[in-house]
Amino acid sequence: MKKEWILEIVLIIILTFMYYLNKPINSPKVIYVPEGSINKIITHLGNKNYNVNKLDSLILRFMGTPQYGWINIGATTNTKADFLYKLATSKAALKEIMLIPGETTYIFLNYLASELALNRDLLQSEYDAQSNKPEGALVPNTYKFPFGITEKMVIKILLSKSIIQMKEASIKIFGNYDEKRWFHFVTVASIIQKESANTREMPIVSSVIYNRLKQNMKLQMDGTLNYGKYSHEKVTPKRIKDDYSPYNTYKYSGIPASPVCNVSFDAIKAAIFPAQTKNLYFMKSSRGTHDFTSNYSTHLTNIKRATK
Questions:
Q1: Could you tell me which of 32, 77, 25 has the C-alpha nearest to residue 51?
Q2: From start to end of the chain, where are the E strands?
Q3: Distance of CA 267 to the CA centre of its chain
Q4: Burial of 292 (0-12, 13-18, 19+ CB in 10 A)
Q5: What is the pLDDT of residues 190-222, one digit of tens each?
Q6: With CB atoms 3.0 to 4.6 Å apart as the test, which of 27, 92, 148, 155 could cross-link to 126 if both were Cys?
Q7: Could you give phi then psi for residue 71, rounded to 5 degrees?
Q8: Alpha helices in 147-227 (DSSP H)
Q9: What are phi and psi of 62, to 5 degrees?
Q10: The dihedral formed by the CA atoms of 167, 171, 176 and 177, expressed in degrees to the nearest 10
Q11: CA atoms within a 13 Å half-sphere pointing along the CA-CB vector of 219
C-alpha cells in the first residue's frame, strides 16, 4: 500500500508538472532578453507581464542559458515548455540595416520597411510620436534588427542609440549636452554633408556657410533642397523657383530651421570647427571635388571650366 501511495503521489506530481508546462503563454514573436543571470532574465520577463515565475527560472537552468539581446521565438502563443525551450535555444535572426550619412529619414524609413517587411506608415507615425525632430535625429551607422520586430521598437532602438551617441560626442567636445545648441550644429552639418565631396572638404564647406552668413548672403546651396523624398533628385532651376519650403536657401536667408538629413560626426565636427578661410563660393569640378574661391569672377571662371 505504501508503494502504491508513493506512486500515486509521484504520478500526481508528474501530471501537475505536465499540466503546468502545457499552460499557454502569450508574448510578442520578438522579445528582449537582458544580459545577466537566469533569475534576472525571468524577473525582467515577469515585469513585462509574461506569465513566468521563479519555478520557470529553475526549469530554464536545465534547458540552457538564453542568448541576451533580441531573439525571435517564432510565435505569439506557446506552451510554457515551448516558450522556455525557445528562450534557452533561440538565436536572433538579425538583419543589418545601414543608414548612410546624408540620407534623409523619409528615404531611410522606406528602406527599413522594405528590408524588415514593416508597415511604412506605421514607421512614420512611430517616428513622429517618439521624436521631436523632423529630421537629423538618427546617427548614420549599421544597425542590427531581428526579423519580426515591431515598428514601434525599431524606432525606439534607433532613437535611443542615436541620442546616446550624440550626447557622448557633445560631452566630449563641449563638456555637456545642450539639445538646442547641438541641433543647431546638426543643421549646419546637414548642409555640409549634402554639399561636400569628401570629409576633407567638410571644414572648407563649413567656412563658406559661416562666411556667407556673416555677410548676410543667402546660402543658395542645392543640397538644402535634397530634403525628405527629394534626397536623390537633381535640383533644377524650376525646382528652385517652385519650392517654397523653409529648406530653400535660394529664397530664404540663414540656415533652415531643422536639419536637411541625418549626418555623420565628421560633418558635425566640421560645423563646430570650420576651416579659417575667406571663401564664399565653390563649384564642383570635373575631378568630382570642389573649387573654392573668395572671388566671384574666379567662381564664374570655375563654372565655365566645369560646364565645358
A1: 25
A2: 24-26, 30-33, 69-72, 77-79, 94-98, 142-146, 281-284, 290-293
A3: 17
A4: buried
A5: 999 999 999 999 999 999 999 999 999 999 999
A6: 155
A7: -125, 150
A8: 151-174, 179-195, 202-214
A9: -80, -15
A10: -20
A11: 25
Alpha carbon distance 23, 114 (integer Å): 36
Coil, strand or helix at 228:
helix
CA distance 101 to 186: 12
Residues of the chain with pLDDT under 50: none
pLDDT at residue number 78: 85
Cell numbers for 169: 560626442
Locate 118 and state its grid cell: 514593416
Question: Which one-letter amino acid corresponds to residue 145?
Answer: F
Query: How many residues make up the chain in this entry?
Result: 308
Q: How far apart are the first and last CA of the chain?
A: 107
Whole-angstrom distance, CA of residue 24 vs CA of residue 46: 15
